[in-house]
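Continuing the series of single-chain predictions for the mutant panel. This is the parent chain; the variants come on the following pages.
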Amino acid sequence: MSASADSHRLTLVAAPAGYGKSTFLGDWVRKSDLPCAWLSLDRFDTEPARLFHGVVGAIQRAASTLPLPGSDALLALDQGLAHDRAASYDLLLRALEELTEPIVLVIDDVHLAGPGLANGIVGVLAASAPPSLRLVLSGRGHTSIQLERFRYGEGLGELRAPELAFTREEVAQFACSLGQDEAFDAGSLWKMTAGWPVAVHASIVSLAQSGNVPVTTPSATAKHVPLADYVAEEILDQLEPSLAEFILRATTCDWLGRRLAVELYGRPHGGVLLEECLRNGLFIEEQDYRGGESMYRWHSLFAAQCRRILERRDPLLAERLHRVAARYYQDADVVECAAQALQGRAPRQAVMSLGAHWLDFVLGNDAQTLERLCRDLPTPWNEDPEILMIRSVCRALAGDSTAASELTERALSRTFVLDALRRRKLEVCRAHFEPMPAVGRTDLHAAPAEDGRLGRDMAEHGHAAACSTGLFLLAQAEFRLHRTGEHAAALLQAAGGTGIPKQLEAREIYAQADLALAFAGAGDLVHASEDASRALERGDALGWSSQERMAPAWLARGIACYWNDNLTAAHTYLARAQRLGSDLFPSGPLSAIYRVLTDCATGDPARIAESSSALESFHVRGLYSVSWNALHTIALAKLAEAQGDLDGALAIAQPLGAGGHGALVDTLLAELLRRGGDIVAAQRCTESLAHRRGNSYVDTCASLTEALVAHETGDTATAHERIEHAIHRAELGSVLRPFAERREELAELLVQHAVWGTAHESFIAALMARDSQGDGRLRTQSHWSLTEREREVLAYMRSIMTAAEIADALYISVNTVKTHERSIYRKLGAGSRRDALKTAAQRGIV
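Parent structure:
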């Protein structure tokens, strides 16, 4: 505040009631080095003469207690407003100009003066007062004085609710000052109140009187904080009756948009009153944009108190408004719809919304929330057959087949209570989900990729959307087994062919995110990146980029970047996928595995420790099948290998034998066994991958392992054949990580392979150039002789590519390549390409 008064002619202190504005400014005035005048306004200060009298009197009292140079003219002013208002205002301004030291005028409760404030003396001082007067205006909301000129011109000091709110530490200190001990849960209280000082005080006093401590769930206590009378008297009763009524109705929901505001208020100008609440800082802020309109959020504790007030005054109206909100949210937000319906004593509305949209929860990997909503329904609605069947699906997805079967039997025994339409819906649900295998038992013998026949067969027996949903869930079962991803991709593509209605945009985005992950699991990194980017773009437009449903897209990006050897981007995407992913869907655990691989590749000890900790946090939950155990074991082995303990890594991997696990596990295991010298076991492991080589990075890794095994055993022909095959599989999707991981062992072999003959000269040369650039030691050693571009050209010269082919690979002209070649020859003292390469090798450049 002192800094603001020193550097700004006008400072605004604006916050809702209960933020301690007057207390704060009073303390500051008493401790300020500047002479300060104080004026508190009330509703009668709308009269210009009364306001002028108060302002001049306050300034004169401050000037008389601490005499200021040049204050004589100020003290001689008449406090009465002359008939010519402009003349009186000019006299005050001229008197202020004679001051040689600044003086502060604090005007408190400016909101009480109404819209006339801008046209009186306060408006004149704000616009034209000399720098010797520092004006501080304090109030609850928007002042009628125009402030934009200050914000974008000479500058405006502002302190608002976030600056005045208590921090977590201040809540703890305040509680201690009121007699609470160190065990007091200040964090929960701070979260519940958002630091609103009057609410903090009321809560602590109430708890001290009752001898309780705050519970750990803030929302559970928001309604019971004794603030309703304060809100009614100090906030609502100070407003225009129409605005107060609007607030009582509109706080039915913590979140709302303009259309819902109009529906709750019941009159067309509800949107205008919503804007007035925003302008006056009445505990509401614009925080989101969804469904084509801006969304606003009330301070949750304030809204809870308003609901309590309305329930006391008109309980029937309160219930009706909850039902209005439930109807509004029935298709937009099922969780909010169910909560509003139950508060409005309309559980049937919650059941209808859950029945219509439960598939969205399943596809969005949020079955836990869905099951909780179903359990929270009151009796007898929690025994509704459709609700029981939904709970059965949730249990099946969680791997609890016993409970799922029991719930299904209970649902079928109560179908007599359903009408014909709901009975048909139940039968469709049963047909698609009853045969769905539990986690760890999936055995898809169908051939989903055969011309989409699976999708057409299912479409003949039910609605297209339900068919696509069944296919999506089968694909998720594939994911949970951590298989190659080929079946999952085929299932999702078949689902897309069953004709999902255009209006189900959300389901399409889920499907695209899942398909991106399926492509990544299947080794199609190009399509994985493309589909993930499209899904995230569409999700970002709807504000979903940070939601769990987008985790598969982030994971797909991370997997693609890892195999492309873009480790920085991979770490970023995988961390986000792991943060958003659920326990039961692979976005969480699978991202933990890939984070281990990525961080081991970077060699950063801090990151390795972090990813190791995240890996164990998933493993100790015991939620996953045998396939996860194999992945966990190989990840631990990779961590040991990254720390230089190859023997320890082999000991960890020993229970895995020589293959027979998931494709990723066997791929990593084969290379680990080869490095450990167990050639026979490594060969058996690669042989076990024979039928799973449709995956580009699996095939590339296995082929390179086979090439190195053949090279070590002296089988040169097989070594080159396997390298050529690996390069062929890697080039299309830029699968670079397997080559980077085996860089030292492949370096000489790739040079020999380029001489041996290859159809992929450009790719090999790019690998050589990449290896040359990746070694900081070599770069430093040869920096004196060759530039970055010259070393890049030199790396390509190790192949048999012509100057024109090198130019195409580097996107430069042939003449530029030849210029670089001549420079290389000159700097290395070479007369030919062979001599240049020989000299470069002797100097350690290549």
